[in-house]
Amino acid sequence: MTKRARSLYWREELYNTVCDAKGGIRDAAAYLTEQRGTSIHMESLRRKLTGGEQLDLDACFVLADHLQGLTHSSHRALDWFMVAALQRGLHFIEMPPEPEGGFEDEYGAILQKITLGMEEFGKLCGLTNQAVADRHLSDDEIAQIVAQADLISTLFQRLIRNVTRVGRKQRGET
Q1: Alpha-carbon separation of residue 152 from 19, 31, 143, 158 (angstroms)
Q2: Which residue, 21, 57, 101, 139, is most buried by CB atoms nearer than 10 A?
Q3: Where are the beta strands (DSSP E) in 28-113?
């Protein structure tokens, strides 16, 4: 599934996520105060998040930690960072955590990812061919193509992680 940011601007994305979180700006300001040992009033935080005052990167990461600790906001905690990267032409892939110590059968996991990758790439080809046949892309078609491409990108990054982990194990590295 594709993550859709609500904004094209990182501050706006962080502000929206904080406002939508349980306790909103008030709880976020309290968390910042507790974590940094320096008092910040909720209106000062609001001004920082909306661009009226300087907002340092450390505060953003502390806010992300706060959001990750909230059940219904954890999935959006780093969206602001993704938006900031996109503003600068960078792209990140959010990866699921790797299994502790790797897979019992690393080679089987590598082969499984390659097989799945071929299947998913076939789906992407089919989706794209159908979508561009009329020389117009609807929002739904764009979303489907992006979601499928994101799935494949993540899968291939996981493959890279598997292969490099096997390499480290073979060299006796941990």
Answers
A1: 33, 37, 14, 10
A2: 21
A3: none
Q: How far is CA 134 from CA 23, 122, 128, 139, 144, in A?
A: 48, 20, 11, 14, 16
Spatial CA neighbour of 23 closest among 80, 81, 78, 63: 63
Q: Which of 56, 81, 66, 54 shows the shortest CA–CA distance to 28?
A: 66
Spacing of C-alpha 102 from chain mean position:
22
The tokens for 4 are 């859709």
pLDDT in tens, the chain (174 residues): 344 556 778 999 999 999 999 999 999 999 999 999 999 999 999 999 999 999 999 999 999 999 999 878 888 898 899 889 988 999 888 888 888 888 999 999 999 999 999 999 999 999 999 999 999 999 899 989 988 998 999 999 999 999 999 999 999 987
Go through the chain and tell me how many residues it has: 174
Q: pTM for this one?
A: 0.64
